[in-house]
Each structure stands twice: as C-alpha cells, then as structure tokens.
C-alpha cells in the first residue's frame, strides 16, 4: 500500500473556501431579499437594471422579441447569480484575511465587505447590513466548524473531517438563512398605501364604479376572453424591480425651455380637477398576437394643465424622465392630450404601473407612457429616448391589430373564436374573420365601444367548422376606414404588423 505523496486534502481548502463563499453569497442574497423583497433595495434589482442598460441593444431586442417574459426571467436569474458572486467575493476576502491572522475575524471582514459593496450598489443601508450579516454568519460558522478540536491536525483523516465540518456548517447556515430570507422577503407586501390628504381619493370618485360596471356590461360573454378592463394588465420595465416611491416626498417638475420651471407635489395633483379615462396600452416589442396589450380605467389630470402654467415657448419635443432611469422623447404635439394618471381601476396607481404617477399618451406605443414620472422636460431639439438609443422606433402611433386569443368549441359543436382589436386613437370600426384561410370574409361581432378616444374593442365570431383543419384569419379596419395591412413585419424596430392567422382543428 502506498500513500499518495500529495494528499488530496492539499487542494481541498481552496475548493472548500470557494464553496463556503458561494454558500455565504446565497445567504447574503437571501438577507438582502428578506428586507427589500422585489424593490430596488434588493441587490439583484440594480444589477439586473445595469445589465439591461449595458448589454448590447441587439441582445436586449432578442430577449424582448424572441424570449419575451422568459427573457426578463433569465435576466433576473442572471442578476441573482451575479449578486451571489458579489457576496461570495466578499466572503473569499474575509476568509483570506482570516487565514493571515490568529483571530477569527473572517466572518467580520466578510460581513463588512458584503455590506459595503451592497450599499454601493443599492444605496439601501438596512438591506445591505442584513445581507452583510447573513454573508458573514456563514463564513463565521464555517470557521467555527473548522476550528473544532481535532485529535491530530496532521492526520489526513481528521483534516478531511475538519473540512467536511466546515462545509457542513456552511451548508446548514446558508440553508437556514436562505430559506428564512426567502420566506421573509416573499411575505413583504409591495402594495402601496398612498398618503391621504384630508381623505382625498380621486380614484374612488362616484363616477368610477359606474364606468367599471359599464365596461363589465359591454364585455362580450366569451369564455376565456379578457374583459374590456383587463384582469391582468401586462407590465414591461427596464428593471426587474419596481421603484418604491414615497408619494409624500415625490415631485414632478416641468423643466427645459419654459418661461419658469415648476414643481408639483402629490398633494398638488390631488387638489386638481381629475378625470377618469379608459386608455389601452400596447408594447411595441410584443409579438403580433402577443399578450402585451391591455386596457384600464385611469384617474388623473391633464398634462397640459401642469405644463401650460410654466409658459410654453416654441419647443419641438418633450422628454419624460422617470425615477427608474427611464426616459422617452416625442413631439410636443403628442403631449396635447396627455394624461397624468394617479389611479387605476378604482384604486391608487399600483407600483408596477408607475406609482405615484405615470404619463398616458393616447394612441402611441406603450413605451412613451412613462411610469414613475418625475420630470417633464421641454426640448428645443430632438433627442433619443431610452429605447431609441437601442434601435427601436417606438414613440409613434400604434399599428392596427386584431388578435386571436380564444378558440372555443361550443356544446353544439360550433367553433367560437375571439380576441381584441386596437388601433389607438383611430379606433376600430370593423373586424372581419375568415375561416378558409382568407378566401372569404364575414364581419365579426364587436363589443360596444367604451367611452374614450384610445380604447380597444373585443370581437367574436361563431361558425360551423368544416371537416378537418382550417385556417382562421382576422383583420381590422380602423376608424379612418383603413384596412390593417396584411404584410407581416417583426416587432423590431417599429412594432409588429400583419394579419393574425391560426390553424384550427
Ligand atoms: N419608468 C418607466 N416607464 C415605462 C417603462 C419603463 O421601463 N420604465 N416601460 C415602458 C414600456 S416599454 C411600456 S410597453 C409601458 C408598459 O406599461 P405597463 O407596465 O403599465 O403595462 O410602460 C412604459 N413606461
Ligand atoms: Mo413597451
């Protein structure tokens, strides 16, 4: 029997240190999540945002268009992985320092480093300290695990078991901190509770309920079809975490080439005359028959009521800027009917949709409907917005679309198809359906129009299906009499177009 000259344990400490560091990293991320949940104070939030901002435009476009929601989920996963690595580096540093001194300070160094890096990234002290402590705890416990008395430090067997003890301590502490942090973070409510100034809640005005009831009443009775006021309104953000703004300290400024710059508080807006409008939104980056088109009842004020008192000279354009670092520019003329929404479907604006306030620019692609709005800047010359810098042309009016989302087989064997049609402020006049691949067309039944200049409509059609496979095609005619173009184009760069087609069996 010959023993290897270099015992395997020689290289184990390196691997163990890395494993311990990664486990400490997991604990750190969990600690951050425990306090911050999915807000920008969570370490992975700014990292995901940074990646979205710095990755090449083509990659982001690919992720939006091809991967869709999976793309943003991947981005979040990647950000969580990077966050783990960041804390792991702090843990490695702690261990390295610990090895060079006689004192068990590895955990303290790891904790302090992790907290410092985290606060640098998130600017959120509490979540960073908790993340640091969680990271340091795993390093500290693994250190204690190692320094348990062992009979002979030179023996290979006890070296191994010391290494195992160390790893075991790290696994156990990382698992409990990880699960604990995850549970704590998941329980956090990310709902907003807007400050009530003398109980003013404009979104709960008496007109709101009847309007919502009207939308419910006008919604077609087609199983599986999203009602006229969407049950689940889509969300598209440059970051994976929504800003947590405090309405009481939020302000909206009007700046740029105006006579005098102005600043409005949330209270100022609440005191203004509000209006309730149905407005539909559609993302320029969605697939032709995608799910990023929705409608809601919004409560808010006219944007021109905010801008005009600043004194408007001849500006060409406007740049809307937001608390998440997003900005979009478009012609001043489009601002004329702009709406600043502070409420949605009878409640305050949800965080995910821009709390405390967002812009709604009728008829235009979703991207210029800037959420978490903080500044309206009047410009003298054109500039690119966030997405235009990345190659998109998404600031103009929406394309006309008729989507096909529902194919039902009724009890009597007939087929029922349905979807939504939208053409921005041009409105929808007509939707036609073909069940023979486009040879013959019939008019679909349309939902009665909602009040509002920028609303979608539902359509449905019921027919006796032919034997076997057949092709259903849908096309809309907008309020100007223009038929939706048949030619298909991809979403990039100026939105999808073409007739939606589906094979039905
Ligand atoms: N501040 C901010 N506003 C934003 C975005 C964003 O990432 N940040 N995304 C835009 C895009 S691309 C779209 S399609 C709409 C989507 O609005 P929703 O998330 O309320 O559906 O918001 C727009 N406003
Ligand atoms: Mo969008």
Would you give an account of this structure?
A hairpin with a 7-residue loop joins strand 14 (428-434) and strand 15. Helix 1 (12-36) packs across helix 4. 34% of the residues lie in helices and 20% in strands. The protein has ten helices and 19 strands. The chain has a five-stranded mixed sheet. It is an alpha+beta fold. The protein has helices spanning 12-36, 44-54, 57-67, 69-100, 106-122, 125-146, 156-187, 208-218, 266-270, 303-307; strands at residues 251-256, 262-265, 275-282, 293-302, 317-322, 327-331, 339-344, 347-348, 358-360, 373-379, 401-402, 406-409, 415-422, 428-434, 442-443, 445-446, 457-463, 470-478, 500-504. It folds into three domains: 7-187, no CATH class; 216-390, Alpha-Beta Complex (Sulfite Oxidase, Chain A, domain 2), CATH 3.90.420; 401-504, Immunoglobulin-like (Sandwich), CATH 2.60.40. The structure holds the ligand Nc1nc2c(c(=O)[nH]1)N[C@H]1C(S)=C(S)[C@@H](COP(=O)(O)O)O[C@H]1N2 and molybdenum atom. Molybdenum atom is lined by residues 236, 283-285, 366-367. Residues 412-487 form the Moybdenum cofactor oxidoreductase dimerisation domain. The chain crosses the membrane at residues 20-43, 50-68, 74-94, 101-121. Keywords: Membrane, Transmembrane, Transmembrane helix. This is Molybdopterin-dependent oxidoreductase.
């Amino acid at each position: 029997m010959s023993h290897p000259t270099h015992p395997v344990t020689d290289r184990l400490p390196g691997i163990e240190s890395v494993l311990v560091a990664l486990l400490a990293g997991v604990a750190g991320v969990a600690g951050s999540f425990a306090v911050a949940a999915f807000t920008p104070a969570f370490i992975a939030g700014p990292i995901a945002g940074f990646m979205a901002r710095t990755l090449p435009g083509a990659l982001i476009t690919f992720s939006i268009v091809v991967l869709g929601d999976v793309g943003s989920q991947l981005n979040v996963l990647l950000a969580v992985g990077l966050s783990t690595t960041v804390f792991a580096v702090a843990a490695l540093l702690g261990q390295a320092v610990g090895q060079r001194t006689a004192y068990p300070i590895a955990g303290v160094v790891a904790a302090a480093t992790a907290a410092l890096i985290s606060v640098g990234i998130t600017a959120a002290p509490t979540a960073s300290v908790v993340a640091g402590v969680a990271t340091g705890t795993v390093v500290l416990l693994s250190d204690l695990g190692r320094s348990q008395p062992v009979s002979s430090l030179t023996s290979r067997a006890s070296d191994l078991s010391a290494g195992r003890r160390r790893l075991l301590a790290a696994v156990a502490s990382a698992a409990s901190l990880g699960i604990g942090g995850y549970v704590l973070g998941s329980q956090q409510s990310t709902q907003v509770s807007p400050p009530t100034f003398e109980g003013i809640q404009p979104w709960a005005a008496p007109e709101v309920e009847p309007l919502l009831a009207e939308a419910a009443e006008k919604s077609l009775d087609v199983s599986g079809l999203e009602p006229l006021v969407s049950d689940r309104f889509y969300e598209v953000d440059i970051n994976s975490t929504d800003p947590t703004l405090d309405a009481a300290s939020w302000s909206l400024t009007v700046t740029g080439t105006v006579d005098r710059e102005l600043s409005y508080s949330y209270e100022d807006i609440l005191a203004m005359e509000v209006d309730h409008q149905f407005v539909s939104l559609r993302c320029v980056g969605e697939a032709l028959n995608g799910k990023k088109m929705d409608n809601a009842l919004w409560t808010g004020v006219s944007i021109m009521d905010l801008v005009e008192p600043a004194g408007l000279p001849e500006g060409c354009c406007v740049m809307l800027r937001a608390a998440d670092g997003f900005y979009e520019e478009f012609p001043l003329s489009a601002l004329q009917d702009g709406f600043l929404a502070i409420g949605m479907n009878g409640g305050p604006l949800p965080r995910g949709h821009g709390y405390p306030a967002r812009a709604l620019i009728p008829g235009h692609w979703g991207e210029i409907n800037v959420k978490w709005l903080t500044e309206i800047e009047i410009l003298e010359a054109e500039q690119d917005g966030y997405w235009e810098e990345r190659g998109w042309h998404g600031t103009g009016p929406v394309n006309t679309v008729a989507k096909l989302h529902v194919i039902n087989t009724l009890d009597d064997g007939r087929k029922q198809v349905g979807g939504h049609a939208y053409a921005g402020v041009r409105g929808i006049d007509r939707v036609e359906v073909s069940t023979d691949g486009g040879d013959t067309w019939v008019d679909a039944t349309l939902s009665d129009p909602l009040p509002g200049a920028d609303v979608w409509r539902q359509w449905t059609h019921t027919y006796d299906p032919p034997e076997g496979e057949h092709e259903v095609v849908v096309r809309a005619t907008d309020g100007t009499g223009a038929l939706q173009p048949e030619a298909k184009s991809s979403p990039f760069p100026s939105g999808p177009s073409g007739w939606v087609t589906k094979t039905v069996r």
